[in-house]
Amino acid sequence: MTPETTTADRSRDVPIHNTIAEPHLIRSLIKDDIYLLGGQVAILCQFAHPALAKGSFKHSSFATRIPQRLRNTARFLNAAVSGNPAEKAAIFSVIHKYHARVKGDDYDANDPELHKWTAATLFFSILIVHEAFFGELSLDQKETMLRESAVFGTSLRMPPDMWPQNLDEFWAYWDHNIQTLQVTDMARKLCGDLLYPLNLPLAMSVSMPLARVVTMNWLPERLAVEYDLRPTLATQVAYQGFVSWTRLMYPFIPQYLRQRQHDMYVEDMKKAVEKISQTGHWAGV
């Protein structure tokens, strides 16, 4: 190996790493569809990293493919958190084939630092949704969820020793990135595509205004300014009303309704695995 070989180069042919902790707590949480509300804030935090924004801008289309991208993301998350070894191997093989093509002079989807940041945004989004609607987790629960969230990075080939060892280390890493990452014009264009997509199914179109309200109120302040998504008085009032109503009514919603979308995505993942076993890809599912 030459001195010029990068971390991304070294990781390209590395197998999936064993993760730090089996994600028992995360698995129990994200069965509820309400955690999907954190998706947009996680993605916008990811796009604050110029390399992630550039890779997405040049190699994907958010404006016209939101439902498919959401399914693909759900396939990865469900495989990482609850998939069996065969399901993980199949789903991750497709993702890594795709990542191998997403690279340029100053970005590479195989860079484990990008995987670390992606995993960090997912931890943040799950935590912020839980604390908004269900109250604060205990310190021990947060530490457990942090260790378990390493699975999002290790499933993308992030070496486990890159993951923060405790909450203090995590928040130091998080705060540094939030204060120093540059939101580029590409990221702002992707933000518009994400929040105002085209050709959505009716059910998703109806939910988009609410998704924008919670995203505005959950984004770290600096990123909200950079994306021009600072909450207004109206969106703050709407957000507080939605949170209060949800906290009151959520316990009365039947479990099968609370987990309906999750169950559909798990079934979709299993269909994708079957298609991969037949064709080597999930195209057409």
From TrEMBL:
Alphabetical list of InterPro entries matching this protein: MPAB/Lcp_cat_dom (IPR018713)
Coiled coil: none
Residues of the ER-bound oxygenase mpaB/mpaB'/Rubber oxygenase catalytic domain: 33-247
UniProt xrefs under Pfam families: MPAB_Lcp_cat (PF09995)
Molecular function as annotated in GO: oxidoreductase activity
PANTHER family referenced in this protein's UniProt entry, alphabetically: BLR2777 PROTEIN, ER-BOUND OXYGENASE MPAB_MPAB'_RUBBER OXYGENASE CATALYTIC DOMAIN-CONTAINING PROTEIN
Protein name: ER-bound oxygenase mpaB/mpaB'/Rubber oxygenase catalytic domain-containing protein
